[in-house]
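Recap from last week: sequence in, structure out.
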Amino acid sequence: MTTHQQKKLGFDDLKAFRDRFRLPLSDEDVEQVKFYKPAGNSPEMQYLHARRAALGGYLPRRRRVASKGLTVPSLQTWGQFALEAGGRDMSTTMALVRMLTALLKDAEFGSRVVPIVADEARTFGMANMFRQVGIYSPLGQLYEPEDLGSMLYYREDTKGQILEEGISEAGAVSSWIAAATSYSVHDLPMLPFYIYYSMFGFQRIGDLIWAAADQRARGFLIGATSGKTTLGGEGLQHQDGSSHLAASTISNCRAYDPAFAYEVAAIVDEGMCEMVERQHDVFYYVTVMNENYAQPSAPQDDPQALRKGILKGIYPLPSNSNEAACVQLLGSGAILGEVIAAQQMLRDEWGIEAAVWSVTSFTELQRDGMAAERLARLGEAAPLPFATAALGASTGPVIAATDYVRAVPELIRAYVPRRYVTLGTDGFGRSDTRQALREFFEVDRASIVIAALKALADDGEIDAGVVGRARQHYGKAGSTGVASWER
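Predicted structure tokens:
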């Protein structure tokens, strides 16, 4: 295509351009490629100067921090239900939306919260926000919504607070970037929450998320219906096994995969404090699931240690058998429930005590470990990596299972002090039930039990024949010889 290769205009082309737009330039001016500048008092220049004044100046600029931060509401005012869940069935997506709804009601802080969706507000249980704060439209409601007769109808308003961008993740994350950088560009701190199918984030609009990081965005990206097995029946399109791997490559992105509502509350609370009170140039990526299960209350033995473990990335779940455990089971997000079930199966069916650890962030654990390595390399006093210190006092092999590709739990291999076995969901998605998907990807409770028994046998702690009996018992004795990513 010849036009694509043309790098500059010739003299005749420039004259044609001058004549077409009636520019007061002589042939000599055109030949020297001089610019035309209207007189300072001309209507054109007056208009341009007025627009620049309204936009805050002649050059875009970025403040390092806002002139004043925001005060984050007390966690008890918006997240107490999560801290004291008491075994109520709830998905972490619904817990997050409930927290967001409460934050929007705060008299001082609520107006700075910006909920953003690309299309799926009802899927994420956000319909009650339509009535509470409305969907922003500069022209108001110009049509009669189909669900007008319902209490939670699709309500647009010139004073609406939700940004609903239609089926356009690029548009939605661009709105998120605008709100997430408002503290710097407009000296107006805002706190955007963009909620979307996690598969439609880093994989679909990863370049825009990278651009947001470069602009020092501050806000929450919420990857809903996350993982490869949490969304039953949806197949390849929606199942996400890689977003946490992508998030780990962005240094100012704090990535978390919580399993319990109280973990979500602690992470959101810390994120808000870090971004709008301490004004650090970071943003948070939090994955949540749509699977309902019993949500425990936050353990009360040592609240400070619990919060530290959640934010650092790992902590042990309460258990009477932790001191006697001869194998350590690590789980995160959607698969932590399978890990807890595997702990019970090991005890009841094989007489083996196991301890369970909730890993809220393999990424944060890896960064902590790398920071410790760097200090030691430079000859400075370096603490033990948090993962090493946490697991160091325990005994036995360490088994990690997640709803993401194995490369995610592999991030901390260097900091696990003993034999380390990882299970993940490598391969393409497929449509089936949650349990069938977990069995297919071999991250179900039986597969975790077998992995633990095999590791114990490899360490010489149990007879190797136990592993064969377990395979027979759970119907996993045969193999197609084909890895999940090849099927």
